Every structure is written in C-alpha cells, then in structure tokens.
Amino acid sequence: MTEAKKFPMGTQDFETLKRNSEFYLDKTPQLYSFLESGGRYNFLSRPRRFGKSLMLSVLKSIFLGKKELFEGLYIYDKLDFKKFPVLYLSFAGISRNDDLKKYIEHNGRVYINSKKIQIKDFSYFNLGVILEEASQKAGQPVAVLIDEYDKPILVHLKNIEKAEGIRDFFQGFYAPVKDSDPYIHFFMLTGLTKLMKMNIFGYHR
To answer: What are the backbone dihedrals phi and psi of residue 154, each rounded to the nearest 5 degrees, phi first?
Structure first.
C-alpha cells in the first residue's frame, strides 16, 4: 500500500515540500507548456493563496537543474534541466517598518553553481551589475524570479507619499533590466496588481 502523503500546510518551498514527502498536485504540465511557448519576460497577477509563490519555487528548482525533485512528475523526462544562475527575491515577508534597500540586500538571493549569495555581497546595489556579474561567474544568463513585487507598495497604501516614494525607488531598481538582455535567460514577476497600475517601469504622471 502506498503511504499517504502529508498535506503541505503553508509550505511555499518546492524543495522542502518534496524532501518532506508532502503532497504536490502536479502542475508541471502547465509549467512545461508555459516554458516551451512563453516569452523571456513574464508577469503573473493573481489573488493571494493562488499558488504564485510555490510556482516560482518550482521554477527555481527547474532552473537550478534539480531534476531529482521532479521524479514521478510530468516534466521529469521532458526537460534537460540545464543549470542556470537564479536571482530569487520574495517581498512576501516585508513589513511597513522594513528599510526597502536593506530588505532586498539581505533577502535577495543569487544561486550560482549551487552556491547561495546575498545581493549585498555583489559589488554594487544595481540590478544590471548583479545580473552581469552573476552571468559571467556562471557562464550562463540568469533566471530572475521576483515574488509579490508590489507588496512593498501595498503595505503603504494609506500613506500615499511613502507609497509613491517606494514606486520611484523601484523605477530605478528595475531600470537596468531593459539593457540587460544578454544576461537574462528568463524573467518573471508575480504580484496582486497589474504592472500598468503600479507603474514601476516608467513615469506616466
């Protein structure tokens, strides 16, 4: 008799889920189709508890080449699981009291050849420089995965001046992306709100 798997109450990390033999509803057919037919730059806007964070975690494991985690899943024999450096940044845990730059420096992670590096350990706090350095160290372009990109703004919606200041910060933070094509293999943002509404990639006042 097959042992019943534990239900993953609150588990957002795919590797943790698999290592603990927790239940995972196989969504890799959809991910495979998405990776095969989608573009390089992607955005997903969905409500909370829709599975966005777990999906990004699955993508992280795919781009890190952790094929062993996918045994028994649809995608296991469909991809070659080629390894890429991964920049992974989640804003899910940010609060009103956090300094945004320090939060990114300490919570942003770049994975290069199984080594985990904090963003603060790169030579400059500049997304373009980080992508270039990571790509050169790994010899491959970077997969960029950013979860709940809009959370830092949403927690300050009652303070419009603060929210606009954060939006302006992000316009500068993401500005280098447009000139970083050679260093980007895949780029994905998830959030609750539409990019046009948040307006973090350009000024439209």
So the answer is: -65, -35
